Amino acid sequence: MIEFRSISKRFDNGTLAVDDFSVIIPSRQTTVLVGSSGSGKTTLLRMINRMVDATSGELEIDGENVSTIEPVQLRRRIGYVMQNSGLLPHRRVIDNIATVPRLNGVPKKQAHARALELMDTVGLDRDMAERYPAQLSGGQQQRVGVARGLAVDPNILLMDEPFGAVDPIVRADLQQELLRLQRELGKTVVFVTHDIDEAFLLGDQVVILEKGGRIAQLGSPAEILANPASEFVASFIGADRGKRALSIQTIKGAQVLVDGDGNLAGRLVEDGPA
Question: Using alpha carbons only, how large is the chain's radius of gyration in Å?
Answer without folding.
Answer: 21
